[in-house]
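Q: I'm a student working through a structural biology exercise. My instructor gave each of us a protein and asked us to get a predicted structure, then write a short paragraph describing it. Mine is MFS transporter. I'm not confident about reading structure output yet, so if you can add a plain explanation after the tokens, that would really help. Here is the sequence I was given:
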Amino acid sequence: MPVGLIALALGGFGIGLTEFGIVGLLPEVAGDFDVSEAVAGYLVSGYALSVAIGAVGLTAAVARLDRKKVLLGLMLLFVAGNLISAVAPTYSLLMVGRVVAALCHGAFFGVGAVVASDMVAENKKGSAIALMFGGLTAANVLGVPLGTFVGQQFGWRATFWAITVIGVIALIGIQLLVPRPGADGQASLRSELAVFRRGQVWVSLALSVLAFGGVIGGYTYIAFTLTEVSGFATSTVPWLLVLFGVGTFIGNFFGGKAADKSPNAALIGILGALAVIMSVFALTAESKITTIVALLLMGTIGLAAAPGLMVRIMKYAEDAPTMASGANVAAFNVGNALGAWIGGLTIAAGYGFVSPLWVGAGLALAGLVVVATSSLSGRSTASTTSTAIAAGVGPRLEAPRSH
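A: Happy to help. First, here is the predicted structure for MFS transporter. I'll explain a few features afterward.
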């Protein structure tokens, strides 16, 4: 594999660390700025909403520009945002830094995936993209617990300084190691935007919101759950988060295998299992043993949905993959913001630190209803169409190709 893919993966690692690294540091941030747990949680939801805006807005704005220059510009934005966060004297300025860093997130992965695939032969494109996205998974497995540990030992600002350094190294790596892409036949912006006229594309986006809202709804406030409900010491939180990270790594692998067979069937099973796991977690959070098991399973099942969600939307937008992937990243992060926001509301309302887990279970259940209804509706439509064609009436429609 080209060494330039490592630079892209390092950029993905830094971005993943920025998004989730603050989760384990929310108690320290809340105490430093004298804000409530719910207000501290807005640093997660604010980031996620900015990702959603950047994923669609920036991807559309840079669609016709030189992709290497775009990646360099996005990494500069990322470095600037984390530098602001590291020196922020107030909560408001910290939020500004989070927003600035978040704007590059969706566009980086959307554009980076295209650049990564252009760097290798046709039969290795999937592996190249997987390697680039592997940086994001590595951030969950290693970066988030390590970032939490660094923040607890040297202050939460130290984590943002470390991320800033990672961003600078990735920026240099992209400049030196990633080749400049040649001209190609990209679709026009009008063609890219045309996919949003399709109902199933919107169903896919809704599923992404609900699925990620479910898992992040519980995960955002997990540090409080672990210390205030389960009774773990604050110093153990980084190592407990390793379990969630390992789960995401496992889930991403097996979720992809399941999505290859049938994305709808995979999503039905995953969302149903996620609703059950988070409900059981909420009911047994006072037990340290069940908490450890539930944390691992929550990461495994929750992130297993990602491949199926991507495969599903690409099935209905195969002629405009750039905007479709950007929109899906936006939907993921709208879900992150929704889950974190509702979870914060339940805590502020006095329902306790297990209430975000119930929020996550509810959102996962809603996603299950949506995908099951859509799947049944699709089968019914296909059956009706086949019957009409067999009878010699109705149009002969070509079904979307599966991948």
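A: Here are two points you could use in your paragraph. Residues 1-177 form a domain with the Growth Hormone; Chain: A; fold (CATH 1.20.1250.20). The chain has a mean pLDDT of 82. It's a good idea to check both against the output above yourself.
Q: Great, thank you!
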